[in-house]
Prior knowledge:
2 copies of one chain form a homodimer. Chain A has helices spanning about 15-30, 55-70, 90-95, 125-130, 160, 170-175, 195-210, 275-295, 310-320, 340-350, 360-370, 380-405, 415-420, 440-450, 475, 495-510, 515-520, 525-535, 540; strands at about 1-5, 35-40, 80-85, 100-105, 110-115, 140, 145-150, 180-185, 215-220, 220-225, 225-230, 235, 240-245, 250-260, 265, 300-305, 325-330, 355, 405-410, 430. By secondary structure, chain A is α/β, with parallel strands linked by helices. Chains A and B meet through helix 1, helix 2, helix 3, strand 14 and helix 8 of A and helix 1, helix 2, helix 3, strand 14 and helix 8 of B.
Amino acid sequence: MKISIAQLNPTIGDIAGNAQQILQAAHQAVEQGSRLLLTPELSLSGYPPRDLLMQPAFVAEMQDTLQHLAQAFPAGLAVLVGAAVGNDQSLQQGGKPLFNSTALVQDGQVQQWFHKRLLPTYDVFDDHRYFEPGSESRYFTLDGVRIGVTICEDLWNDAAFWGKRNYAVDPLAELAAQPIDLIVNLSGSPYSVNKQALREAMLQQATQTYGQPILYANQVGGNDDLIFDGNSVGFDRRGQLVCRAKSFETDLMTVEFDPEQRDLQPGLVVEPPDSTEAEIWQALVLGVRDYVRKCGFSKVVLGLSGGIDSALVAAIATAAIGRDRVLGVLMPSPYSSDHSVRDALALAENLGIQTQTLPIGGLMQAYDQTFADLFADTEFGLAEENIQSRIRGTLLMGISNKFGHLLLSTGNKSEMAVGYCTLYGDMNGGLAAIADVPKTRVYSICRWLNAHCQVQSLGLIELDPAVTELIPAPILIKPPSAELKPGQVDQDSLPPYDILDDVLCQFVTQHRAPAEIVAAGHDPATVDRVIKLVTQSEFKRKQAPPGLKITDRAFGTGWRMPIACRWLPATDRTASSTLLSIPRPVSSSAAPAVT
Amino acid sequence: MKISIAQLNPTIGDIAGNAQQILQAAHQAVEQGSRLLLTPELSLSGYPPRDLLMQPAFVAEMQDTLQHLAQAFPAGLAVLVGAAVGNDQSLQQGGKPLFNSTALVQDGQVQQWFHKRLLPTYDVFDDHRYFEPGSESRYFTLDGVRIGVTICEDLWNDAAFWGKRNYAVDPLAELAAQPIDLIVNLSGSPYSVNKQALREAMLQQATQTYGQPILYANQVGGNDDLIFDGNSVGFDRRGQLVCRAKSFETDLMTVEFDPEQRDLQPGLVVEPPDSTEAEIWQALVLGVRDYVRKCGFSKVVLGLSGGIDSALVAAIATAAIGRDRVLGVLMPSPYSSDHSVRDALALAENLGIQTQTLPIGGLMQAYDQTFADLFADTEFGLAEENIQSRIRGTLLMGISNKFGHLLLSTGNKSEMAVGYCTLYGDMNGGLAAIADVPKTRVYSICRWLNAHCQVQSLGLIELDPAVTELIPAPILIKPPSAELKPGQVDQDSLPPYDILDDVLCQFVTQHRAPAEIVAAGHDPATVDRVIKLVTQSEFKRKQAPPGLKITDRAFGTGWRMPIACRWLPATDRTASSTLLSIPRPVSSSAAPAVT
């Protein structure tokens, strides 16, 4: 029996368009001789639909469309379609009004529903905000083959694999205890670095533990900050990988299930990107391409400073949508070095993108004049530096508003973490392409680009065969600088980036206490300073554009910190530092005043 | 037996400072002869601590501090302290690593833990992200009085009151089935308009249903976007209100429980604000005051346009922190009317705040010159209008950066909803004081201010007795205008505000389908246009500052919408409009391409 996986790239909320994609995949599946088609989690709405789920009209349209789809599917094909469906018991028994479900559609109608049981409510996930967990794991029978159905997180609770239980129930174990021949999983699992290796290790262990083959269908494409990598796979009952779909591309993968052997047969295995840098590059290119497309833009604009961050974002944008649709804007100030303009132009030439140059000296003078009286007795400082950045941000938004281009911001994760960026200035943009890429990783990706630019396809970048370094060498070599005052370099204000990025990774991603980070070999003063900077810049991140997520912990929908807050973990914090002074009662009558 | 409620205003994360507040309240409670002190939900960390709960060092410090507090409390007093505590069974049994709990502290140690059972995961709440629900409802005995403990949401599942079940279990019913004499509830329940009336109706019904008295202790104060209104109350077993603490202020309220009658005795009942406008005014004043204080600012700055929004925000700021700490900045352009400057100055004079005037004509010219070539063949439009707004935003941020003032943004909810505001321009600010106040409500609050300015205390506003109208009449009378081009008024671009606000309320707050809004009496074209504007301006709101929440559905932490999205409910949408066209298979071999 042939089974196809439609590794689809839905647009959130575009129910009709997504249904059309599913229908097209169904016809392709039939042409390939398939009996069953798998689609990803919530394939009708796209994942995650977020608060659209709170509009009854949205859920109703999903159900209507599902009925139409059922009529439209080619005969002889069973299709698993992801959709939200009402929880009829909600009013009587309590619980959320919806299930996150998969419908088995066959013979012109929905035959059976399967509800997601494990609802992730961590990091970027809010499943429990909308959905009631399903109460049982079930299978269906197709041509005598008994197929157990799980949805995304349902697979992620193998206590042996994780060394702990994440949820009280384990749908996989419950399914495996039933008379089944195959387990399918419909996922909307977002990308992070090395996630696919983790998934495959987990699936391998699960197939070996239960002696059941698993087919895993994942969504692909960018949805705001989240990038879905596809990488749908199949494992046979002995834990062998039998098929893998493309990374970061839509795909239709067909695989054979042999009812005699009750197992999946070896099929096509697409090799994933061969390095972390290649993987991140492809993720970011897809993330930018889809945000541009799904928001309805045709062109993008970005500031080209001559630095490495904007160079990488320009390359990503060009790879994503092509050189004719990318505009680079140079905005030199009197503090800009000659090489800034030269390096930016060299990069633009390599990429073949158009540039505009708008010097900001005149505007700086106009602000100085406006502030002349008010700032008369003050010294040049942060306020003046920020004004330069905000002039540039205003110029870029002027171009964006005038010509309808999407502005891409170019800040990296290290800057965003410590607030080394200007709110309403260089942070401006509709999408922050590398906001989750630490500075050291920005360098390694650029070095990878240069090493591979003539041997590997880089999306829509059309490189002159004479160019051997996509990112001009001076950009990689010179010390990073915001160039907001003469002679400024980042390392005047920040620890060296290799140290900064390691401290940030331990604090932000691994939630380590400052004392642990010091114990791991870092200078206590540096650790304290970095953590203080992270804490104090929360207000900036709260107003940042969506940033493409590539790590396990990005600043964005999965980072929910208070701003008006006084928690500042310090390396020297001990229990004694929290000792209370025992007060005399201040007054015997009055309530404490509002202070 | 006397029982005190400490209606505290914690700073999120300031565990030592919050403990000090609890300790001080404990001494006051003892002076008032109390045997038991109630503190609000998570009183040690403040509610909501959000992702601080993911730092093990944060939870550890809460536990350490709790031990010190136990030693420090005055003898003879039992205290219920809110704290997160580890879920020991989490690794073995699955489930979240923490409980949202209350500790009964007595005789120098924690005697008992009570875990929150109903975890809200809707609107602004993310309890399920961090916490495992408690599995049982319990009581403790003090001087023979059996006291059942519930935490916030635990009370909010009375199927008879709501007409439906919100959760599968009802802790109140389970407690009432046990031999208890009194129920206490420790809450962190945020304010919204008329919320207290709802709470009291619910508490009244609960006390009548179960014949048990209830003491309800709520947090007070502003935490980022959330305002907690206090209003702690007690109801006796017959459903009579016996005591109410202050609204929007810290308080220590002591009430008598009579063991003979097994009931609460009548105590002090503070009257709440006597109108919706008075209530919102007090909420916003507290929200601004606390954000300024808890973020560590001493002064605020805002733009004074001469319009009603900035007038109201200036009044709120002055009431919150005093006239010496508020700076109003006038930034007239060549398009500004004479009355704009005149009205703004008159308002500032009424409030007694300082002003600065920074004309922006020169900067507008400087941008025009910079863009002269690039914009040569285009007409004056949105880009140029936005530049004026961004010049003002940059000037205000320049002052904020130079002098360390907090910038307050002045946009109202109607504008934020339809995107009638400039990202990186008038949206700039650390806090959006009236972002959840619809324009029609802005007017009604200003009219209320004028009617009451000489008869009611308005926070720290010190009004000249000769002033009869705090908000100068011309500001209330003239048609609203952004004044970004000659003769512009808001109603050129938007429906009349009374219509707009009603459509917005139905769509945003009540999740009504467009057809229902039309059925309620609105013009279909207007409804479609408004909904389209709301949907299209999601990208702006994603980058907005925190806005003080006063309604059941604010744009902010409780509004989680996708941006790259194609759901646009329309009044003429019917099931047939989603009919699929059945495609011919495009190709018999290739997978669908990434498009």
